[in-house]
Amino acid sequence: MSSCVDCGRDVDHCHGTLVVHCDQTVECTNAACELGDLLRHAFIIECAAVLGGCCGSEKAADLAVAS
Fold it and tell me: Rounded distance, CA 3 to CA 21, Å?
């Protein structure tokens, strides 16, 4: 049995963190995530909050991937 309440209730959600970029594109730290919807993610951050984030930079940062 999972300790995640949403998993137990079969709610569509993601365990990764959604990163929102300056151009409003999004990516998730969970490699298995296929839908970057704000409502599916409990954790949402702006890329500027990530050390080396791409906002204001020409090169995108490599994000840690959830296991």
Answer: 31
Q: Check: CB of residue 45 under 8 Å from CB of residue 19.
A: yes
Domain residues of the chain, as ranges? 13-67
Q: What pTM value is reported for the model?
A: 0.71
Q: Is 58 left (phi over 0), alpha (psi -120 to 50) or beta?
A: alpha
Other Cβ atoms closer than 10 A to 16 = 22
High-pLDDT (> 70) share of the chain, %:
79
Q: In Å, how far are 1, 26, 27, 31 from 43, measured between CA atoms?
A: 23, 12, 12, 15
